[in-house]
Each structure stands twice: as structure tokens, then as C-alpha cells.
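Lab notebook, bench 4. Still working through the backlog of constructs that have no structural model yet. Next entry is a single chain of 98 residues. Request: give me the C-alpha cells for it.
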Amino acid sequence: MDFNKNQVISAFLASDASDVSDDGSEGDEYLISFKKSQQAWTILPEILETENLDCSIYRQASNMLNNKLQYDLHQLPEFEYQNLSQTILSMIIIFHFP
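Model written out:
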């Protein structure tokens, strides 16, 4: 499956707006596939660096990136560690000191 930033943002919005009692919508399946993908390593930071999105999107993207760091770090090539750490630090500064 191929993913892009706008589709992921739309899926985040749909999952945030959906009723908790819904049983696995297409958007949920899309997000489950996305969070397991290699592409999430680049798309999630892109979303977090995008200005003027709904706070729920930033929350979902940061939670998903946190989970990827905890459980899927093995997917990321070592040469990308430095780049990702710089991106995360810059996002912390942006969100902590707006």
C-alpha cells in the first residue's frame, strides 16, 4: 500500500470524528497499515512540521511516532538516527515554545 501525507491526515481526522463504538472502519485499517509501514518514518515528521493543522492531528501523529520509536526502531537505518533526532528536537522546540 502506498501512503501520502494528505491521506494520512484525512484518516486521522476521520478516526478522530468516528464513534468509538464503530467496529474497524476502512480508515482504521488504513492507519493500522500505515503505522506498520516504512513510509511512516518520513510522513509522520512531515505532518508534525506542517503548520496550522488541528491539534488532534498533531497528537495522533506524535503518538504514532512515539510508538514507532518504541516498537519499530529496527526498521530505521542507523544512518537516519541523527536526522530523526534533529527533527524530533526541532519539533519539541516548536511545540514547547510557540
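Notes after review: Residues 9 and 64 are 12 Å apart (CA to CA). The chain has five helices and no strands. Flag for follow-up if needed.
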